[in-house]
Every structure is written in C-alpha cells, then in structure tokens.
Amino acid sequence: MAIGTKDLAVTELDGYDNDRLAAELDKAKQELFNLRFQAATGQLESHGRLKAVRRDIARIYTILRERELGIRTAPSASE
C-alpha cells in the first residue's frame, strides 16, 4: 500500500485541473510546515504523518511535471 493521504491518490489527482493541484500543493506545504513546527517543539504525535505529507507533495509535483512533458494530460473542461 502506498504511503500518503487517501484523498490524494494518483487516480484522484489525475482528475484535478492545474489550478486545483496548485491549491492542494499549497495546502500540503502548509501542513508540512505545521508538522515540522510541532516536531521542533516536541508536540508532534504522529511522525509517520510527516512522511505521508512529503510523499503527497512529491506526488503532486510529479503529476504537474508529467503534464508539462506531455506524458499525462490534464482533464478537459467538459468532464
């Protein structure tokens, strides 16, 4: 089983347009910042969540890059 958030599976992210992916990326980066802050202050309860959020960010970057290269296509507006 892949590590990461169930809401951000590749099949789910494929259906998002680039603007929605950018919004999800911003949200994931903010969560990662908060988790790192909690870890630094000793308040972090789930260290596995750090790994999951980092993988979610990498997954979003991968899909965006594949779209740039033409490997993966963005969903059309009619869908």
In short:
The protein is an all-alpha fold and 79 residues long. The protein contains 3 helices and no strands.
Describe, in plain words, how this protein is organized in 3D.
There is one protein chain. By secondary structure, the protein is an all-alpha fold. It has a single domain (6-69), classed as Helix Hairpins (Orthogonal Bundle), CATH 1.10.287. It contains 3 helices and no strands. It has helices at residues 10-14, 18-41, 48-69. The longest helix has 24 residues, at 18-41. The chain is elongated and about 45 Å long.
At CATH's second level, what is the architecture? Orthogonal Bundle
Order of helices and strands: HHH
| Class from secondary-structure proportions | mainly alpha
Q: What's the main sheet like? A: none
The helix count comes to 3
- Find the count of extended strands (DSSP E, 2+ residues): 0
CATH class label: Mainly Alpha
InterPro entries: Ribosomal_protein_uL29, Ribosomal_uL29, Ribosomal_uL29_CS, Ribosomal_uL29_sf
Keywords: Ribonucleoprotein, Ribosomal protein
GO molecular function: structural constituent of ribosome
Protein name: Large ribosomal subunit protein uL29
Give keywords.
Helix Hairpins; elongated; 79 residues; mainly alpha
